[in-house]
Automatic annotation (TrEMBL):
InterPro entries: Ser_kin/Pase_Hpr-like_N_sf. This is DRTGG domain-containing protein. It comes from Fervidobacterium nodosum (strain ATCC 35602 / DSM 5306 / Rt17-B1).
Length: 118
């Protein structure tokens, strides 16, 4: 699913684009966590990270494991430091007003696959 389509479905918006066209990003798998240690251990490059954390650490963690897009739920305020981390990491940073449970359900019902531990 294209990122632009995904954002329409979850009523999300891009906060930091990092110079990437949302039409060019294809999302097939989703990881959802507020524990960055789980993201480091279980995520796959190219997946979407859904999180309630709005800190620079979540963006840096995504960049380390090759996650191109972070979607922050619950309409959190995004700190300037988090935006700067997204720009430096090349991660697209998005927000939605919806909660994590709802977002995960919506994305699962669209056919996106979960990221599993191997």
């Amino acid at each position: 699913m294209k990122l632009s389509e995904l954002l329409k479905i979850v009523e999300g918006e891009i906060v930091v684009n990092s110079g990437v066209n949302p039409e060019e990003i294809e999302i097939e798998k989703v990881a959802a966590s507020d524990l960055m240690s789980d993201v480091l251990a279980l995520s796959e490059p190219g997946s979407l990270l859904v999180t309630g954390l709005a800190t620079p650490q979540c963006v840096r963690t995504a960049g380390v494991v090759g996650i191109p897009v972070v979607l922050i739920v619950r309409n959190r305020d995004i700190m300037p430091e988090t935006k700067a981390a997204a720009e430096m990491s090349g991660v697209v940073l998005c927000v939605t007003k919806k909660g994590m449970y709802e977002v995960c359900g919506i994305l699962y019902n669209t056919g996106l696959k979960p990221v599993y531990a191997q």
